[in-house]
Amino acid sequence: MGRSPCCEKAHTNKGAWTKEEDDRLIAHIRAHGEGCWRSLPKAAGLLRCGKSCRLRWINYLRPDLKRGNFTEEEDELIIKLHSLLGNKWSLIAGRLPGRTDNEIKNYWNTHIRRKLMSRGIDPATHRAINESNNVPNVKTISFSSSSVTTTEETKLNIIECKEEKICTMNVKDQERCPDLNLELRISPPSQSSSAGQLLKRRSLCFTCSLGLMNSKDCCCTYSFSSNCSSSSASSGSNSTNGDIGGGNSDFLGLKGGLLEFRSLEMK
DNA sequence: AAGCGGTGCAACCGCGACGAC
DNA sequence: TGTCGTCGCGGTTGCACCGCT
């Protein structure tokens, strides 16, 4: 079954928006509010598709947008949220007032990835690059807590079945850090990690997994004095937010408690 | 001054989710 | 319950800008 195009492409403009188009869009939304994106272009007298209008409004024209450079605090917050949520840019954006998912996505790809790499952290896994390399052929799925939604559980089950691989959930991890970064590792039994590697991963607290080794917020049992002190660990002194829910801070507004995933859905 | 490569960002595209019928 | 239309998300692309040679 084919999908009908979202708009009549033959009669729509593409590319950069002109000032006049912006003005028309702003005026229309001020008068009628957001929504009905499909019919908006015609109503506003714009030769654009609804999607294009929505994107332009959300990413550029919205009055509550905060333009300008990201602060150091925003940087760290994005990193933490990404380690928790992955590429869920809209959820991350929901925690950064005035920032859009597109903006954060771009910023991640252009700045933060490089920043983490320079710290010796794999931006995809938030683990030390050396450690990531030592665990071949392992799929890591992170989810936030036992309060993970049914949908998320379903997804995990589907993945489990599709991969036809053994899933193991480390219950001890859940007990130690009930609120974050619990991992479902999927790997062939023959490639299960060595005891030493397993110990290292088990003992990696959230703060350290962000590359903030030796931070005051570190609560892991594994010492980084030998392995990680060389990977710009001193940057951990910049950490102000602490670990999620496990420390004294109120990261994500979840003081000391379980992370309620739904609470992140701001939209 | 021109050419070139790297970077940043706005915009597009395809697909999944969801609601209406 | 299934189909269809719309919306929203995440990945990708294209282009302008900038610095270097």
UniProtKB/TrEMBL annotation:
Pfam families named in the record:
Myb_DNA-binding
**Location in or out of the cell:** Nucleus
User: Where does the secretion signal sit in this chain?
Assistant: none
What Gene Ontology terms describe what this protein does at the molecular function level? transcription cis-regulatory region binding
Q: What is its main location?
A: nucleus
Keywords assigned by UniProt, alphabetized = DNA-binding, Nucleus, Repeat, Transcription, Transcription regulation
* Transcription regulation as UniProt keyword: yes
GO cellular component terms given for this protein: nucleus
The record's annotation in SMART domains points to: SANT (SM00717)
Q: Which stretches make up the HTH myb-type domain?
A: 9-61, 62-116
Against InterPro entries, the record matches this protein to: Homeodomain-like_sf, Myb_dom, Myb_TF_plants, SANT/Myb
Q: Does the keyword Transcription apply?
A: yes
The record places domain Myb-like at 9-61, 62-112
Q: What is this protein called?
A: MYB transcription factor
Give the species: Stephania cephalantha
